């Protein structure tokens, strides 16, 4: 269960936050995380790995599978799938996110997916129509993610793959070991700041906006397993995922030190076919990976 309750903004305010975010990224041309070359930032590398893990978990079915992304936003994973000629549908309530996605697809000369403006908890789409239903950083923004999990399974074909990357709220101390190894001075400074916040009774576990806070929950992996096991799913797993912590504030140091290490880690795991590539130890995880298949009839 969650460690601490958090108040959630009204639905309209949350949508306004995401609309504003996508508009800002679009205007600043900062909304592109897809790359055909070597990933140059942690965020590009993470997005590449999410796609590669999804692709490899589907196995021989991947190339001909139909994909549905919930809470798609800018659609980075959808871009990777489109580059492989896949049939992709993106679902989101924010039309501003789709404008950014369309600009990104056009910039890379990729075939556009189908865009559906809909609520991820009730899409209105045909049941059992997709081989994989996935999301990247969606479930943690819902106080009750069960309706989305239920809708995901409704849309999934029997035997299909559900793939949800969850980015829960975690204290900054979670990356302390990585910081101590690669940036000890920064780690001690960060730990001191956090200790001061704790002593003042402050704990920030939300995305702060001009309008207020957008919910980011901190449910445990076990809680997601319990929810999934109450639904018509099988082979349910919730893995500690993504060990790629931000170590340096300086882009130059990140490029010279952290990114070299992370690219080596990525290359080694691919060579050894250690999928999911970002599976890690619980004390190193920045995310969870919730995967399951749908019961066969």
Describe the fold and architecture:
- The protein has 297 residues and is α/β, with parallel strands linked by helices.
- Helix content is 40%, strand content 18%.
- The protein has a seven-stranded mixed sheet. Strands 6-7 form a two-stranded antiparallel sheet.
- The radius of gyration is 19 Å and the shape is globular.
- 36% of the residues are buried.
Summarize the structure.
The protein has 297 residues and is an alpha/beta fold. Helices cover 40% and strands 18% of the residues. The model is unreliable at 1-10 and 202-212 (pLDDT under 50).
Q: List the helices and strands in order.
A: HHEHEHEEHEHHEEHEHE
Tally of helical runs: 9
For the secondary structure, the number of strands is 9
* CA-atom Rg in angstroms: 19 Å
CATH architecture identity? 3-Layer(aba) Sandwich
Report how far the terminal alpha carbons are from each other.
32 Å
């Amino acid at each position: 269960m969650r460690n601490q309750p958090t108040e959630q903004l009204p639905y309209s305010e949350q949508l306004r936050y995401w609309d504003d975010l996508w508009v800002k990224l679009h205007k600043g041309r900062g909304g592109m995380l897809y790359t055909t070359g070597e990933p140059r930032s942690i965020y590009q590398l993470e997005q590449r790995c999410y796609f590669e893990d999804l692709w490899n978990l589907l196995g021989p079915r991947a190339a001909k599978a139909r994909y549905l992304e919930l809470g798609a936003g800018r659609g980075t994973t959808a871009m990777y799938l489109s580059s492989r000629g896949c049939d992709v549908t993106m679902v989101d309530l924010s039309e501003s996110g789709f404008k950014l996605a369309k600009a990104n697809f056009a910039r890379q000369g990729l075939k556009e997916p189908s865009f559906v403006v809909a609520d991820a908890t009730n899409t209105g789409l045909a049941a059992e129509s997709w081989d994989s239903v996935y999301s990247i950083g969606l479930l943690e923004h819902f106080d009750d993610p069960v309706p989305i999990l239920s809708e995901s399974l409704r849309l999934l074909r029997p035997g299909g793959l559900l793939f949800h990357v969850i980015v829960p709220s975690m204290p900054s101390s979670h990356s302390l070991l990585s910081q101590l190894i690669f940036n000890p001075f920064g780690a001690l400074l960060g730990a001191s700041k956090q200790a001061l916040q704790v002593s003042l009774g402050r704990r920030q576990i939300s995305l702060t906006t001009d309008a207020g806070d957008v919910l980011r929950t901190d449910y445990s992996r076990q809680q997601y397993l319990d929810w999934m096991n109450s639904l018509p799913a099988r082979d349910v797993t919730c893995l500690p995922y993504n060990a790629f912590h931000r170590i340096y504030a300086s882009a130059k140091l990140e490029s010279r030190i952290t990114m070299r290490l992370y690219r080596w880690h990525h290359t080694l795991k691919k060579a050894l076919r250690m999928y999911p590539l970002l599976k890690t130890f619980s004390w190193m995880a920045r995310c969870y990976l919730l995967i399951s298949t749908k019961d066969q009839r």
